[in-house]
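Protocol step 4 of 5: obtain the predicted structure for the target chain.
Materials: sequence only (see below). No template structures provided, no constraints applied. The aim of this step is simply to have a reference model before the mutagenesis design in step 5. Sequence pasted as it appears in the construct record:
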Amino acid sequence: KMHHIFLVDTRYTFDILHAMTTIKALTVCQPHASAIIRGPKRYENRTWVTSYRGPLLIHAGASRKWYTPITREWYEARGFTYGFGDRSLPLGAFIGIAWLENILPLSFVPEDQRFTACAEGPFCWNVVDPLEFPDTIPAKGALGLFEVSAKEILDIEGMSKWIERHGVKRT
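Step 4 output (C-alpha cells):
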C-alpha cells in the first residue's frame, strides 16, 4: 500500500521538492521519537556524525527499551505525557518529519538540555520544525541514516502545487 503524506512547510520550496527522489530517515526509539515530533526533544543522541542537513523522516523503532521511570519523569516535568501511561506510542512506523539543522558536540548544547533524556552526546543532532503525520506509516527501520523513496511517503506533486499557488518560500 502506498502512503501519501501532504506536507506544507516553509522549508520545502518548489525546487527542493522536485529534486527529492529519496528522503533520509532515522530510526529513534520510543518515547524519544514521539518527543521529537510532538514534544520537547530537540536533540537526538548519536555516537556518529553526518554531513547531511535537511528533511529527516522520523521512524519510531519497535522497542520499548527506553520506557523507563527516569525518562518518563524528565518528559512529564516538561509537560510531555503522551502515551506514557498506556504505552500507546506508535512502534515500527514513520510518524513524522523534522529538519536536521545541525550536529553539535554535547558542550555546545544549551545547559538545561544537557545530560537529560534529550542530550547525552557525544553528538547531539539538532532537529527542528517537526511535523506529525496524520497517520503513521508502518515500516521497518534501520541502523544509521537510511533512505526511503520520497514518492512513496510524500505527496510531492500536491505540495508543489500548493507551494506554487501560495508562494511559500523558505524563511
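Step 4 remarks: The chain has five helices and six strands. Residues 156-166 form the longest helix (11 residues).
Proceed to step 5.
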